[in-house]
Amino acid sequence: MSDFIDQFHRHYYDSLVWQNTRWLGVQILKMPLDLMIYQEIVYEVQPDLIIESGTFNGGSTLFFASMLELIGKGRVVSIDVAPQADLPVHPRITYVRGSSTDGEVIRQVNAMRNPGDVVLVNLDSDHSAPHVLSELRVYSHFVTTGSYLIVEDTNIHGHPVLPSHGPGPMEALDAFLQENDRFAVDESRHKFFVTFNPRGYLRKIK
User: Fold this and answer.
1) Chain centroid to CA 21: how far?
2) Can you give the pTM of this predicted structure?
3) In the prediction, which pLDDT does 2 show?
4) Quick check: 172 and 188 in contact, CB under 8 A?
5) Which residues, given as ranges, of the chain have pLDDT below 70?
6) For residues 117, 65, 29 and 164, what is the CA-based torsion angle, rounded to 10 degrees?
7) What DSSP assignment string belongs to 43-89?
8) Predicted pLDDT of residue 174
9) What is the pLDDT of residues 164-181, one digit of tens each?
């Protein structure tokens, strides 16, 4: 069964259809099965603040804002070192330009967090292992107990796609979990069998 799932995963990924997927007309580089998981998490957690690293065209930013609009609360802060032009505009979205691990950017994002906010974090910027590990170490402190730290694209570097990429999010995730016991992989988020974020749905347990 796992071989069949991996074969489908590779076929889907290599088809690049995920690059031709849109949310309200905006390119969203996500697997639709993961978007279903995201909306479930947003509804369950009821976040006041979603921090997203990696804006690009703003498709997932708009998706998160749309989910927050549906539950009637919350805002999205999206960070990118070089966001694309004509990003979607929404009253629940704030864009921050810069590296997610830059001290000034971290201070800006921290200033947007209100006391008592429920915070959800989604990491999808530079996929090199050192950068993702740095993000994990920084933004894990923002996540509220019971909420999630989502690490995207843990499927690359042969897990099971894009084996030539080199160490990436999965390797950073493994290193992070070895040094941090406040998060656990939520295996229930793998219920659709195929995800671009295997083991990447981290729930803060303490």
Assistant:
1) 17
2) 0.97
3) 87
4) no
5) none
6) -10
7) HHH--SEEEEE--TTSHHHHHHHHHHHHHT--EEEEEESSPPSS---
8) 98
9) 999 999 999 999 999 999
The per-residue pLDDT for range 123-154, each reduced to its tens digit, is: 999 999 999 999 999 999 999 999 999 999 99
Asked if 120 and 126 count as a contact pair (C-beta separation under 8 A), the reply is no
CA separation for the pair 103, 115 (Å, rounded): 21
Helix, strand, or coil here: 204?
strand
Q: How far apart are the first and last CA of the chain?
A: 34
Angstrom distance (rounded) from CA 128 to CA 109: 22
Beta carbons within 10 angstroms of residue 90's beta carbon? 18
Bridge pairing between strands 183-185 and 148-151: unpaired
> What are the structure tokens assigned to 73, written together?
């609360």
Number of helices (H), then strands (E), in the chain: 6, 9
